[in-house]
Structure of Hydrogenase small subunit:
Amino acid sequence: MVNVFWIHGGACNGNTQSFLNADEPTVIDLVTDFGINILYHHSVSMEFGNQVKEILDDIIEERTELDILVVEGTVIQGPNGTGRFDTLFERPKKDWIYDLAHKAKFVVSIGDCACWGGIPATSPNPSESTGLQFFKDKPGGFLTSEFRSKAGLPVINIPGCPAHPDWVTQILVAIATGRTSDITLDEYHRPETFFKTFTQTGCTRVQYYEYKEPVEEFGQGTRKGCLFYEQGCRGPMTRSSCNRILWNRQSSKTRAGMPCIGCTEPQFPFFDLAPGTVFKTQKILGTIPKEVPTGMDSLSYSTHAAIARTVAPKWAKEDMFVP
Ligand code: SF4
């Protein structure tokens, strides 16, 4: 039996909604096939009130072993560092999170808010929100960089707004089945198996990216063209497997005509690039984007783009649809 406690901080509950839609494996599979015992989850457990307090006390006083602590949402530290904006049983939730994290064998952050603070931590951050071990892209966060769970690992970050449900259930299964040596983390503590490649990998528009053929208007789902040039798609600079492990097993943002908004990166929602919106295109000078794909400088990129467009074959400009 692998005991899991899921705690919810400052967030919209989107990661729970995503988690409940997992396919491979499903939440039911976690319980019936992989030995996961959900001690408490606010949306699926029958326990409430003092029953939840008893579960918490049993973990803190070490009558119950906590194998995996899952945190969804930011750690709210306001006002003035007291945490009184977000309490559970008359106690700041941040204190519960601190105690639980130090009892758990593994700590897993689900979604941007828990990983790096996400939207609630965006300036001016009135709730004094932070992620568990990062504040945006800066190491530290609530638990500090030195934190290691009882199994000796830092917080395992599964970002996204929300995180893809299969990323969550597959990491829980890896832990539950003792395959933690398979979990290699990147510099932001994201499992490489889901976050090593760019969102662009597997995108059905990538040939139009190469020949610099844009989609002119937002929301042109199956219309040909790349969403980078006019719609500000962040696929070439975002690490995620959204186009390899499809959402609902059938689609992704870019397949639906929606630019990638970079929601698995610590700096999300990039309000500095697009004040007040996450949708604004990044280009500033004609077709030269403000940001260039990771690994390129802007001069090389602009040169490459100009040549690519000049030599684009006829089919790249034809009025077609992409799957
Ligand atoms: S739509 Fe986005 S992810 Fe797809 S090829 Fe264009 S820039 Fe890359």
Summary: The mean pLDDT is 90. The first strand starts at residue 2 and ends at 8. The chain has two domains: 2-194, 197-323.
